[in-house]
Amino acid sequence: MRVEYINPFVESAFSILKEVLNSTVKRGEIYLKPTSMSIMGVAALVGLAGDVEGRVLFDMTKDTALFVAGAMNGETFTNLDELAKATIQELANMITAQAVTKLHGLGFKFDLTPPALFTGDNMEVSTNLGEVEALIVPMELEKGKIEVNVAIRERVK
């Protein structure tokens, strides 16, 4: 996986989270995971296709999702209702769209799927990308963390 693909997602996640949460965000240590992995409870998934193929997953606990949805809407959420879910999907959309805009500026061309939201306990996400590992960038928030999980490879022609 080329670093040129990853940096725009990391930079976009950092700047957008800082802006929409209006609080400090710290980037944690980057590490690798298999593309088949358990999620923390709430995950927004965006697929990528074009010059590259893969996906970006924004993974967090339910409590973190409620905190983020509340901060973005200026209210307190106690359950993951439709507005809270839509807010997490919009966050994924904002981050991914900004990253893709940066990548298009570098000459990479690909399209996105709308964010899909997965919630629940003991769930696993699998991606059929062969030997590609997912690069995980934890974003430490005031309450909890969001793991930006990127698994991308150049399209096999």
Question: Can you characterise this structure?
Answer:
- The chain is of the alpha+beta class.
- The chain has a single domain, classed as Chemotaxis protein chec, CATH 3.40.1550.10.
- Helices cover 35% and strands 32% of the residues.
- The protein has three helices and ten strands.
- Helix 1 packs across helix 3 (82-105) and helix 2 (62-73) packs across helix 3 (82-105).
For the structure shown, list the relevant keywords.
8-stranded antiparallel sheet; 3 helices; alpha+beta; two-stranded antiparallel ribbon; 157 residues; 35% helix; Chemotaxis protein chec
Strand content: 25-35%
CATH class: Alpha Beta
Query: Helix/strand-derived class?
Result: alpha+beta
Parts with pLDDT < 50 across at least 5 consecutive residues: none
Rg over C-alpha atoms, rounded to the nearest angstrom: 15 Å
Topology order in helix (H) and strand (E) letters: HEEEEEHHEEEEE
CATH architecture: 3-Layer(aba) Sandwich
Tell me the count of domains: 1
Produce the secondary structure layout:
Blueprint: H1 3-21, E1 26-27, E2 31-33, E3 37-38, E4 42-50, E5 52-60, H2 62-73, H3 82-105, E6 110-112, E7 116-119, E8 124-125, E9 134-140, E10 145-154
Antiparallel strand pairs: 1-9, 2-9, 3-8, 4-5, 4-6, 4-7, 5-10, 9-10
Helix pairs in contact: 1-3, 2-3
Please summarize what this structure is.
The protein is of the alpha+beta class and 157 residues long. It has helices at 3-21, 62-73, 82-105; strands spanning 26-27, 31-33, 37-38, 42-50, 52-60, 110-112, 116-119, 124-125, 134-140, 145-154. Helix 1 crosses helix 3 and helix 2 (62-73) crosses helix 3.
